[in-house]
C-alpha cells in the first residue's frame, strides 16, 4: 500500500540522469553558440551603456528638470508633477541619485525593448486566433514562472552583468504589453472597421489609422504594467550584477542593514509611483481624446 501514501514518483536515479542530460545539453549548446548570442545582444548592451552614461554624466538639475517636464506634459496635472519633483529631490537628498539613475536606465531600455517586440507580437495575435492560442500558454508560463528561474539560463548563456539582467527583466515584463495590445485591437468596434473598409482603406491603413489609435489607451495600460513589472525585478536582477537600487537592498538583506534596505526600497517605490501615475494619466488623456474624436 506504499503507492497509496507516497506518490509514485520517477525513480531517483533516472530522474538524476534526466536532469544531468538536460543540463549537459544546455551547457554544450551555450559553449558552442555563446559568442553568437553575445554578438546578437551587443546593440542592446551598447544602448544600455549609452543610456546609463547619459543619465549619470548629465548634471542632475537637467535630469531633474527633464523628468519633471515629462511628468507635466504626459499628465498635465500639477499634483503629479509636484509629487514627481518632491520624490526625485528626496531621492537625491538621501544620496541615492546615482543608483536611481542606473535603475531608471535599465527600466527604460527594458521597457523600450519590450514595446518594440511586444506590440508587433500583440498585433499579430489579434489577426490570428491560431497564433493567439499558441502564444497565450507561453505568456502564462512567462508570467507565473518565479523571476529567479529566468536568471539561470541567462547567466549560463551570457554570464553576469547588465545584458543578462536586462534579458531577465524583458522576459518577465513583456507579457502585459503583448496581451493588452492583442486585447485592445480585438476590442475595436466592428462598425468603425466596416466604415474604414467602406472608404477603401487597405489593411495597413486600417491598422495604422483606425485600430492602433483606438486601441492606444489599452496599449498604454499594457506599457504601464510592463514598467511596473520591470521595476519589480530590479532587486532580483541585482543578484547577477545589475547595478542600481536593488544592490543596496540585497546588501541590506545580507548584512541586516534595516535603514539601508528601507531607504532604497522606498526609492524603488517612489520611482514606481512616478512612472505609474504619469503613464496612467497619459493613458486617460488618450482615452478622453479618443472619446471626443469619435463621439463615444
TrEMBL record:
<keyword id="KW-1133">Transmembrane helix</keyword>
<feature type="transmembrane region" description="Helical">
    <location>
        <begin position="257"/>
        <end position="275"/>
    </location>
</feature>
<keyword id="KW-1003">Cell membrane</keyword>
<dbReference type="Pfam" id="PF00528">
    <property type="entry name" value="BPD_transp_1"/>
</dbReference>
<dbReference type="GO" id="GO:0031460">
    <property type="term" value="P:glycine betaine transport"/>
</dbReference>
<dbReference type="GO" id="GO:0015871">
    <property type="term" value="P:choline transport"/>
</dbReference>
<feature type="transmembrane region" description="Helical">
    <location>
        <begin position="80"/>
        <end position="97"/>
    </location>
</feature>
<feature type="transmembrane region" description="Helical">
    <location>
        <begin position="226"/>
        <end position="245"/>
    </location>
</feature>
<keyword id="KW-0813">Transport</keyword>
<feature type="transmembrane region" description="Helical">
    <location>
        <begin position="104"/>
        <end position="125"/>
    </location>
</feature>
<protein>
    <submittedName>
        <fullName>Glycine betaine/carnitine transport permease protein GbuB</fullName>
    </submittedName>
</protein>
<keyword id="KW-0812">Transmembrane</keyword>
<dbReference type="GO" id="GO:0015226">
    <property type="term" value="F:carnitine transmembrane transporter activity"/>
</dbReference>
<feature type="transmembrane region" description="Helical">
    <location>
        <begin position="54"/>
        <end position="74"/>
    </location>
</feature>
<feature type="domain" description="Rhodanese">
    <location>
        <begin position="22"/>
        <end position="38"/>
    </location>
</feature>
<feature type="transmembrane region" description="Helical">
    <location>
        <begin position="148"/>
        <end position="174"/>
    </location>
</feature>
<dbReference type="GO" id="GO:0043190">
    <property type="term" value="C:ATP-binding cassette (ABC) transporter complex"/>
</dbReference>
<dbReference type="InterPro" id="IPR000515">
    <property type="entry name" value="MetI-like"/>
</dbReference>
<keyword id="KW-0472">Membrane</keyword>
<comment type="similarity">
    <text>Belongs to the binding-protein-dependent transport system permease family.</text>
</comment>
<dbReference type="InterPro" id="IPR001763">
    <property type="entry name" value="Rhodanese-like_dom"/>
</dbReference>
<dbReference type="GO" id="GO:0005275">
    <property type="term" value="F:amine transmembrane transporter activity"/>
</dbReference>
<dbReference type="InterPro" id="IPR035906">
    <property type="entry name" value="MetI-like_sf"/>
</dbReference>
<feature type="domain" description="ABC transmembrane type-1">
    <location>
        <begin position="100"/>
        <end position="279"/>
    </location>
</feature>
Amino acid at each position: 500500500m506504499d503507492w497509496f501514501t507516497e506518490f509514485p514518483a520517477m525513480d531517483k536515479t533516472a530522474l538524476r540522469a534526466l536532469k544531468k542530460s538536460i543540463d549537459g545539453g544546455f551547457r554544450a549548446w551555450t559553449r558552442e553558440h555563446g559568442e553568437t548570442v553575445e554578438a546578437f545582444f551587443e546593440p542592446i548592451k551598447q544602448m544600455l551603456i549609452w543610456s546609463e552614461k547619459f543619465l549619470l554624466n548629465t548634471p542632475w538639475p537637467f535630469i531633474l528638470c527633464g523628468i519633471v517636464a515629462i511628468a507635466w506634459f504626459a499628465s498635465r496635472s500639477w499634483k503629479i508633477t509636484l509629487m514627481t519633483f518632491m520624490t526625485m529631490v528626496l531621492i537625491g537628498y538621501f544620496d541615492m541619485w546615482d543608483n536611481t539613475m542606473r535603475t531608471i536606465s535599465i527600466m527604460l531600455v527594458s521597457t523600450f525593448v519590450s514595446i518594440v517586440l511586444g506590440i508587433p507580437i500583440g498585433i499579430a495575435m489579434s489577426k490570428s486566433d491560431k497564433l493567439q492560442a499558441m502564444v497565450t500558454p507561453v505568456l502564462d508560463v512567462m508570467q507565473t514562472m518565479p523571476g529567479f528561474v529566468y536568471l539561470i539560463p541567462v547567466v549560463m548563456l551570457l554570464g553576469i552583468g547588465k545584458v543578462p539582467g536586462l534579458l531577465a527583466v524583458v522576459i518577465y515584463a513583456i507579457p502585459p504589453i503583448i496581451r493588452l495590445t492583442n486585447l485592445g485591437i480585438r476590442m475595436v468596434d466592428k462598425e468603425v472597421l466596416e466604415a474604414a473598409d467602406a472608404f477603401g482603406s487597405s489593411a495597413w491603413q486600417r491598422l495604422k489609422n483606425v485600430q492602433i489609435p483606438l486601441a492606444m489607451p489599452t496599449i498604454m495600460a499594457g506599457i504601464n504594467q510592463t514598467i511596473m513589472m520591470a521595476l519589480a525585478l530590479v532587486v532580483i536582477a541585482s543578484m547577477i550584477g545589475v547595478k542600481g537600487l536593488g544592490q543596496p537592498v540585497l546588501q541590506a538583506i545580507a548584512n541586516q542593514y534595516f535603514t539601508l534596505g528601507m531607504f532604497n526600497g522606498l526609492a524603488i517605490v517612489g520611482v514606481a509611483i512616478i512612472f505609474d501615475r504619469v503613464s496612467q494619466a497619459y493613458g486617460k488623456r488618450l482615452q478622453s481624446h479618443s472619446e471626443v474624436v469619435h463621439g463615444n
